[in-house]
Every structure is written in structure tokens, then in C-alpha cells.
Amino acid sequence: MSAFSRLRLDGVSRRFGGQAALTELDLTIESGEFIALLGPSGCGKSTALNCLAGLLPLTQGSIWQDERRIDTLPPERRGFGMVFQSYALFPHLTVRANIAFGLRMRRLPREETRRRTEEAVRLVRLEDHVDKLPGQLSGGQQQRVAIARAVVFEPSLVLMDEPLSNLDAKLRLEMRTEIRRLHQSLGLTTVYVTHDQEEALSLADRLVVLREGRVQQIGSPRELHNRPANWHVADFMGYRNLWRGRVDRLDGNRATIESSGQRLLGEAVGDLRTGADTMVAVRPEDIRVDGPGETPNAMSAIIEVVEYQGRELAAEARTDTGMLLHLRTEQRIAPGDQVKLAIDPQRLLVYPADAARRTDLPASGSEAAR
Amino acid sequence: MSDAGPGRPLAHWQHRLAERGVDRQLWLLVPALIFVVALFLYPFFYGLTLSFQPTNGGPFSDYARFFSDAYERGTIWITLRIALPAALLNVLAAVPIAYRMRGRFRGKRLVTTLLVVPITLGTVLTAQGLLNFLGPTGWFNRILLATSLVDEPVRLTHNYWGVFFSLVITGFPFAFLLVLSYLSGIDPTLERAAATLGADWRRRFTQITLPLLMPGLATTFCLTFVLAFSVFPSAVLVGNPAGETRVISLAAYQAAYEQYDYPYASAIAMIMGFVELVIIAVVLAARSRFYTGSTGGKG
Amino acid sequence: MATTTEAPPTRPSTTTERRRRITARPAAWIVWGVVIFFFLNLLGVVASVLVSSFGQRWFDTWLPDGYTTRWYGRAWDEFALLQVITVTLQVSVLVVGLSLLIGVPAAYVLARRSFPGKRVIFLVFLLPILMPPITYGIPLATVLYKFGLAGNMSGVVLANLVPSVPFVILTMTPFIEQIDPRMESAARMCGAGLRTVFLRVLTPLLVPGILASAILVLVRTVGMFELTFLTAGPDSQTLVVALYYSMSASGIRAQQSVDAMAVIYTSMMLVLLVVALRYVNPTQLVARVKDEPEH
């Protein structure tokens, strides 16, 4: 139960009756780190978390806590804390008893149990609700109880399974800060599962992006945000514009692309050859409206749909060549406007298109890639 | 535990089993399995083998004996002639009544509670009550005579009708409560949606509610039929156990406890089970033709 | 909210209500007529037994000549009812206890887990409910007699377990399914072992379900005729079976004392029923149905 300096997952795999849910996950977690497992639903992130918790036996691989192998231990003997998506509070126990549960299981002296429970209650600011039953609390309060219950026995690792997905937007932002604050002030090591890239970027020190049970990329928020390793990750990280294209010319990292009759200049990421099929990825906010006339990647388009989003407008535009673009801008535009658009070549990422899969993706536009 | 190295150990056999959902927790099933094997499957197969070892004659002679004797063979027909109409009536009468009562209204709990009474009383007590109530000098005949609906008492006990009524009294509430619970399992917004699309109540019932209810009705029919098919005490007490209500369970009972011919009794029990399962199989086969998924309600 | 002073929209709602009531009238009359007719007959059935048991003499009249309670005393002595009721209670308690012990763990596994062969096992547990009791009762009684287990109370208990255990499994399964499995995971993540999870988390949450199925099994066992009839000996009869015997030999005893016994049985069942309905929905008495949320 003591703290570790390093937790290592080695080739962790899990299958469900022949169906692979998680394949060969290798990951080293340093003490004190905040790691987010990120991916669309069904990508294996929850499987990974449950394997780590011991709630799901591995099919293959091993988990090492420093020099000790722990994947054969039952969950109650790993000494990890866990916060569940549905909170999973014990409905027949009061808030106090819920939080104290883990301490009671460890048979700590009564006095110490009381003291540490009080402390945890104060930490999540639920002093006024200790004698209530979970059913009498709001969603945010229940969430706080769940977190207090998971951290009160000072676990060497805290696992969180989409803990914010049942909260409304405002509360989600508050709890996000709260979780980060707790992580820092208690010096926790946290593994956090989410499908919300924004949440993961804002919370984690390191992100692990999963897709179809396999790791796609491991990196810092900045790396993932600016340089996704492949177009699937880009798709997931908010590169809403994904266009098929073909490499015209390669000049080091500079690639000239031909995509639905449009010549584009961008940064090559990964292994590209002249003439190869590519996927071009651009974030909506990287498309500028009314850019200066003589830049690369300039195109003229007609605005089709505009959504008001506070400071900004989100819009869909179609170029003369028929390409569909998603963009965000602070300028005032309206449907039917003729606009000039431009994309900084550094922010236009060019990926190799994978050969067999996702051939259903349209040549232009990105509806299918969303 | 055996692999200590950081390499890629082969999947442990326990893990491979766990992957398919087999682990220590399944031991919790063992007492129930022992129970069902010892007290249900074993006796059943014991009876099955016993039925092929008659006291005299070849292995099938007890079955031959049953089917060659018109008095014995007829019990199947007698049982079906009582059980099928009774079960059908119970289910069909339950549908419109449950349909009308499916909403929430004052006294609903009282009505359902009253309906449970005959089920809990059971067939023996119902039989005793029917003898008093429907008998030639009972209140029912008195009312008919007093209102000049009939000139002389109608014979309603110690014949087919006595048994039939006892099956309706215990079977109808059973069917009703089941149908009611199936009906309340259908999301009421479905009917409202149909109404906004222009369907009147008749079409709403026949095109939305009824098709969703059909699987439930089939199940209800099966359970009601099982109750009616195993009719035993009322067939003896309010029926005519020597004649028109000599049901098959009575034949089996007499073979076992009056003639002490256990092989023959087992043979009759097997025939009885077989006939019943055939009818249930037919109904369930018909049921599978309907949509049986979620009906959206809180069922 | 003090500013909302518009009148409630009464008119449209009354018109729709009236229209609905008019179209609903004939169908509603028929339905309620059938229901009332059914209840009147039911009342007649129960009341005629009750009146008869208190009647002095009752031949071919609307009501008995006079009233007395002596038939109850007679029935009590003649049918050795004290012993019969004791046996009934002993059998019921044993059946309830054993079927819970066997059924609840099995229900847990069947509700929570999926494993190869689960459907077959579930079907086998369902069969005793789907088969007429006489069909398996006769072979079962034969086997029990062979091992010297029938003709006494152990036989009655064993035979009654056959439909009771599946019944516990069927009624408990929805209760267990209602409990979020992550509750158990949460307890284990807090350091609770399997045993603690069962005792501290699951059992308290399952109390309503256990209570409900216990009461349902109790009602069914007291009312179970066929299986008890086939396996009981002279001193292990339950109340229904004793009632059946007294009825089928009714020439010997006065009709009224049989009626008195029937009333005793009825009142016992009604007490059970009243108790049962405090904990379960009437529909649950007949089949496995998830509780309708009432609020």
C-alpha cells in the first residue's frame, strides 16, 4: 500500500471472448503524475483502467509496482482508490460512513478513522452534509463524496473513470479545477479516463490516446494539441477539417498537396512519399477569414451556415472548388457572404492516409470524419 | 505467479477462463445446481426410466396400455377440453379490462389486492366455496330462481362447469395481473406518438399496443395454461372425477396411490408433461414471430 | 413566481375530458360490469363458506336457521388442527429458509455474470415452474419414498423446495440487477474483500428483495397442495392437505365443521397476504415482475 516511484504496464492486453478490447498497452507512470487516457467510446480506455484497478483480469501482460508484480493481486489488495462515472456511492450509508469505508476496511484505530474522515470532508467542503444519505445530495456533492472516499486512505494511485460526464457544463468546469487542485495539494498520482479532449488537455501532465484498443500517441498536452501523431488522433483532438489529398511535391517537411483541385502547402507529419495519398488536417480556428491576399493556401469561399458561439462564430464555408471548410472567427460574417480564407502552412498538417481503412471518407469535407 | 520476468508470459489458464466469465464466484451456483439435479432432474429421469420398466410387458407396454384404453386415453382430451378454453378465456378477458385499468386511478391497489385473494386461497378452498355457492340450494341458483331466469336449479357443480368456474376464479386474476404488468411495461408515449400521427384509439390499440403486448400475452397464456392443465383438487371436489372431469393428473394419481403401479403412474406423468410442453412449445414458437425487445416502459 | 396570475386553462381540459368520457362510456360499463360480476361471485364463494361455518343448520334457505361457533371447536378437535397448523408453520419456515440459502447466491451469479452454459442453467431452473407439479411430483415422491424421505416432514420440505428455489431465483434476479455492479467494485477498491462486499454492501441493499421473496415463498408453500399431498404422511399434513382430506370424506363429518376448517385456512392465508402486501406489489405474487415505481 505504500507509495511507489514508478508503475509499469507491460504489454497489458484484454480480450472478451475473442474480441480484443485492449492490445499491448505499455505505459510507465511516474509518482505524482496526472495521466489521462483519452479516446472515443469503445477505444479500450475503461478496459485499461479496470485492468489497472484489478477489477478485470488481464488476458496477457503484467503490471509492476516498482519491482513487485501486482496484476495477480485482487483489487482490494492493490491499495488504489477509484472514482466511478456513476459515483457508486453506497446508498444505505451516510456521507460520513461512505467516506470512512476505506479506512474501516483497513481497520485503523477509531480515533484516526474519525480524524482522517473529518479531514477529507473538509477537503471536499461537505461539512454540512456528513449525516445525509447520498440520495439527498446533488450530483456535484455526490461527486465530491466519491472523490473523498477514493482519496481518504491515501492511495498510492487514484483512478478516475469519466468522473465528470454526469455533471452539467458549469459544474463540470468547477469540478475540473477541484480535481486538479486536489491532485496537486495531496501529491496524488492519478490516472484519469475521459473522452473529452478539452478535459484531458486541461488536467493531465501526459495524455495517452487510444483507438480500437491500441495506443496511438503518448505525449504532453502541447504535443497532442499541436502535433497529433496520425490523422485519427488529429480527428480526435479537434482537427475538424480533414481532407483527402495527394502529395505533389516534398521538400523536407514541406509538402505541397493537391486536394479537390486546390493546391495546399503544409507540414508533413510521418512517412510521406510523392504521389502518396494523404489526409490533411486543419483546426477550425486556424483558418483565417480575409487573410492578406498574397499568402499561401489562400482560397475564396461562400459562407453557408453560421453558428453563434459567444465571442466567436463557427461557420461552414464552401470553396469554389467544392471543398467544405469548418472555421471559427471573431469577424462578423453571414450566410451567403463571399470571403477570402487563408491557412498558415505551419498549421496545415499532412498525414499519410492509411491504406485499407476508412475509405468511406469523402474526398472533400469532413462529415464522415467527425 | 509463476512468471517472474518482465517478458510476455503466456496467458494464465485462470485468466483464459476468466476471460470467458468463469471464476471463483461461480461456486455460488453450486448449491442450487446440486438441488436442481437431486430434486428435479434425477427424479424426472428416474421416472422416465421407470416408465419404460413396467411391472409386466415390454418397455413400451405401459404407454401402449394408456393409449389403447379409451377411458385412459380420453383423459388427455378431457384435460385439454377444460384447460384450453379456461386459459383462453382468462387471457382474452384480461386484455380489455387491463387495458382500461392500466392508468393510475383511485382504488387500483384495492382492485389488484382483491384479485390476489383467490390466487392465495388456492383451488381447494375455491372448490369448497363453489360447492356451497353454486350448488342446487346455493345463493347463485336462489338468485336465478328468485328472478325467474330459470324454473329449476341449474346444475353447476359435480360436472364440467364446476371445474371450469374454479379455473376461472383462480386463473383470471392471475392472467389479469400479468397482463396489467406487461401493459404498464409499454411506454405510454408510444401511444401518444401514434395519436399525434393521426391514429384513433382503435388503431392505436391494434397497431401499437397489441403487437407489443403479444409476447406478454403468449407468456401469460402459457402460465395460465400450466395452472389449468395441472388441475387436480377441484376436478375431484367440484367435478365428476369418475366421468367428465377425470383429468390426466387424476389418472396419474390413481395409478400411483390407488393401484401402487409406479411405472404406469410415471408413464402417465411423462405423457402429461409431454402434452403440456407441446402446447407451450407451439405458443412460444408463435410468440417468437413478434417483436420481443424493449418496450420502452418501466417494466 | 408571484407574478404568474393568468387563469389556469380550465376550459380546454374540461372539454377534452368530457369528450373522452362520452366515447369511453359503453366500453367502460362493460368492463366494470364484468369486474363487478366477478367480484360478486368471488364474494359469494367466500361468504357462503363463512356463513355456513357459523350456521346451526342450513338447508334450502337463504340463510341458516341460527348461528353458533361450536363448529370451530369441533373442527379444531376432529382434525387435530393444532398439530396441523404447527406442521404447516414448521414446513413453511424450513422451506423459506432453505430456498433463500440456496436461491440467493445462485440468483446473484445469474444476475451478474455471463458464462458459457448460462442459458441452459437458467432454463433448468425455470422448468420446475413451467411444469405441472403433478408431472414431476409423482416421480419425485417415488424417489423420496425409495430413500425413505417421504411420508414425513423432510419429504414435504424437500418437495416444496423444488418450485420455491426457482421462485426465489426469479424474484431476486431483478432486485440484484438493480444494484449498480460498480457499487461492489467501489467497495473492493476501498479495500473490502469478497466476503465483506457481500455482508456490508450487498446484503443491506438486498434486504427488501429477500423479504419480498421470503414472503412470496411462504404464501406459496402454505397454499401448495399437490406436492405436499403427494409426499405427506398422516402426521405431516399441512392445512390445505388436511382440508382436502376432510372435504373428500365429507359424508362422515358435518359440512359445517369442514367449512369452519376452511375459514381457519382462509384467515391464515389472509393474514399472510396482508403481511405480504406490505412488502410486495400484488403482481409479484403471481410472477416475476419488476416493481413499478409508484412515485
How would you characterize the overall build of this protein?
The complex is a heterotrimer of chains A (370), B (299) and C (295). Chain A is of the alpha+beta class. Helices cover 23% and strands 35% of the residues of chain A. Chain A has eight helices and 20 strands. Chain A has a six-stranded mixed beta sheet with strand order 6-7-8-3-9-10, sandwiched between helices. Chain B is an all-alpha fold and 299 residues long. Chain B has helices at residues 13-19, 30-51, 61-68, 70-101, 108-134, 139-146, 160-184, 188-196, 201-229, 233-237, 248-257, 262-287. Residues 1-10 of chain B have low confidence and may be disordered. Chain C has two domains: 23-68, no CATH class; 71-285, Orthogonal Bundle (MetI-like fold). Helix content of chain C is 74%, strand content 0%. Chain C is globular and about 75 Å long. Mean pLDDT of chain C is 81; it is low at 1-22 and 288-295. The chains are: A alpha+beta (370), B mainly alpha (299), C mainly alpha (295). At the B-C interface, helix 2, helix 4, helix 5, helix 6 and helix 7 of B face helix 1, helix 3, helix 4, helix 5 and helix 6 of C.
What is the element layout, followed by pairings?
The complex is a heterotrimer of chains A (370), B (299) and C (295).
Chain A: E1 6-16, E2 19-30, E3 34-38, H1 45-53, E4 60-65, E5 68-69, E6 81-83, H2 95-105, H3 110-123, H4 139-151, E7 158-161, H5 169-186, E8 190-194, H6 197-203, E9 206-211, E10 214-219, H7 221-226, H8 231-236, E11 241-251, E12 254-259, E13 262-268, E14 277-282, E15 287-289, E16 298-309, E17 312-319, E18 324-329, E19 338-343, E20 349-352
Parallel strand pairs in A: 3-8, 3-9, 6-7, 7-8, 13-20
Antiparallel strand pairs in A: 1-2, 1-4, 4-5, 9-10, 11-12, 11-14, 12-13, 14-20, 15-19, 16-17, 16-19, 17-18
Helix pairs in contact in A: 2-3, 2-4
Chain B: H1 13-19, H2 30-51, H3 61-68, H4 70-101, H5 108-134, H6 139-146, H7 160-184, H8 188-196, H9 201-229, H10 233-237, H11 248-257, H12 262-287
Helix pairs in contact in B: 2-12, 4-7, 4-9, 5-7, 7-9, 8-9, 9-12, 11-12
Chain C: H1 10-54, H2 70-78, H3 81-112, H4 118-130, H5 133-146, H6 153-178, H7 181-189, H8 194-223, H9 226-231, H10 239-248, H11 255-279
